[in-house]
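Job type: complex structure
Entries:
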Amino acid sequence: MNRFSLARTLRVLTGAALFAGVASASNAQDLDKVTVAGWSKPISEITNLLAEPDKGFFKAQGIELVYLSGTGGGSAVKNVLSGAADIAFTDPASFFHALDRGEKLVAIYNIYPQNVFNVVSPKANNITRPADLKGKKIGVYSLSSGTRQNLQVLLHQAGLSEADVTIQVTGLLNFAPVMQGQVDATAATDTGLYVGTLKGLKDVNVMDVKDHLNVPSDMFVVPLKTYEMKKELLKRFLLAYRDSAAWMIAEPAEAAKVAVTRSINGRNVDVNLEIIKLRNLSAMSPTTHARGLGHFDLDVLQKGAETFHELGLIKSPIDISQVVRPDLLPE
Amino acid sequence: MAFLEIKHASFAFDASHPVVDGINWSIEQGEFHCLLGRSGCGKTTLLKLVAGLLEPGAGSICLQGETVQRPGRAVGFVFQSPTLLEWRSVIDNVVLPLSLHHRIGPKDVDKAQHLLELVGLGALGARFPRELSGGQQSRVAIARALISEPSALLMDEPFSSLDAITREELQDDLLTLCGHSRTTVLFVTHDIAEAAYLADRIAVMHQGKLIHQETVAMPRPRLPEIRFSNEFSSLCRDLHDAMRTMR
Amino acid sequence: MKGALWSILLFIGLVAGWELFCRTTGVTELIVPAPSVVLHTLWQGLSTGFLWPHIGVTTVEVLAGLGAGCIIGFAAGIVLAEAPGLQRVLYPYILASQVIPKLALGPLFVIWFGPGLLPTIVITALICFFPLLENTFTGLRHVDPNKQELFRMLGASRMQTLLRLKIPNSAPLILAGVRVAVVLAFIGAVVGEFIAANQGLGAMIIGAQGMMDTSLMFAVFVVITVQGTLFYQLAVSAERWLLRHHSTGTTQ
């Protein structure tokens, strides 16, 4: 290629790129962009967020929703602290850890008031109470995952600590080791257990963490500054989110279908439906029935914070009333 | 003032070992001179000094009255290996010296084609060096050296890697070409018979110095039969003895 | 031709053996899915259109990262080769940028570049950059001294020597770098997606993991393998055509 056609090609490409940039910028002028940092890839559990292009709940509130994938609750908080995202979809443990490091964050919406974590073991191992876990090998998703932290909460309720058991990192496919006998039990979630049973897991004992201390699974967390400066925007966001969650609760079959195209792991509609139903259940509690989706049970959250302090996972105690701001919740 | 004047030229890569040591030599226009010597005697270095690729540590080299300080368009150089650019066609290779200085026009291409015909490769212009034999590549290199119509042609053992028959053919072709255009030639070689066949005058070099010279009185045009004449044999013997005394 | 035939036979043999193993040992789909199952999943994914957007996203990342990485690596190779002083100053930093695992930089890139394809494209570009830099640099520093002398003799300027001798002469080495970069680009894009992306084949692998869907994972591996091989062959063909006159040994 000689010098002249190269120059001409570059000119054409630059022109095209500029045009594309201008065209896309002029599209979403009227909406406020809000980026949600999640703890996972866009999976079927959060179909109500992913269905936005189809349902437009956020657009109806004048919001352009952007979802930022994460690798755990900690990454969601980090992305919000760095400014890459506005709101974190994260778990209490990550929230407490960040507060303990001195970060100024507040929780504004209780996404899943129910604790979804559990410990699953083959019936043959006879593990029916937390105390039975003593001296056993237990699998967790990763060392920084919610499964591990909730396992610690469970152990603590029985007067045990991690020193009394052996923790084994098994990754996301964490039922294979227990099915093959490489660990005695595995710390998982409700949806994980469901998928496991589909893949051949049977005859198991399940200990639900929520039977012992029902710390919520996920909340929306924002920096204090965002809360102070963007109250109106956050109110609209939470209203939109509540509407989307309400839709998923009312129309799980429709949501399951949407999940096939909008989520990364939703290729089977029937599996999607079951997972969505599980998430819908975890989004509801007596408090939410009485006052609406998203409301907090402050005393439960306080107990959770105290447990974390006793476990030594955080250095200073946390006063929940200081770090929870329920005033933005829709009525 | 001779056409090419070498005055007390010296060159050393490091101070203790001069590679070229006080050479005096002059060449008249249109003459064909050969520099003969064993490997390592400094003849290639002297050639590069004349070309302007190296600068003499002492002394001077003058071409047509002007001191040679850098490579110039008036001098064509043929290297020991053809050094063609593999990714360009034969005719593009011939035209290379011109294309570096101005945009190539049809006149330049015609000139290149004409030169290729003179060296017997008229039909191979569109081929690529990879497809040519060693002898053919050498011819292309000669054509390339001649395209800017240089007044002097410097050649560094250009035929040394070729077989005897091809070498003789190229020697004849070279003489024909230079005879046409009356080019002044300085030809470096280690081959006694080659020097004897080609040259008007022969300078024998040893360890950087000129130790012997011969003027070759054989008639031109040199015909291949000359190689078997008595005059030729005795010339070769003289050169042979001159080179053998060097240790 | 014979070599290709043997390759195909070996492939058929391996797949048949694998299928046999799965059927006779009764190992669950979770641990090792049979080829028939993987193929079925793959077919489903392609025919329902489930996989195509993800293939598209990864392809865009591969092409953009490859393009950017190659161009920048090539340009940097030229700059460093032509300015040895600069090379001595900058090289430790370039090396450091390569030795740091890109996966570790992933979350950082999300913070810097936001959501979307850009963090993955940057990771891919960083990975493709180094082979091009090294090969361009080496090629430019190892030009036949005879040819360099020829160009000096012909009075060529430095720029002419660079554009008309050094770069064409280094073409085989530079194109070898591109070949390597093509393969690495796939690794970069897929692995980059593990961290940062909402869509793409790497994101699919993470999603499949979470669903314990091993057959989908294998199906995605098949897609990546086929695509990677295709791109590589394209690169080889392009290289063969570009170098058709270079006097390298035959590349049959």
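Summary: Chain A has two domains: 32-114+216-328, 117-211. The domain at 32-114+216-328 of chain A is CATH 3.40.190.10 (D-Maltodextrin-Binding Protein; domain 2).
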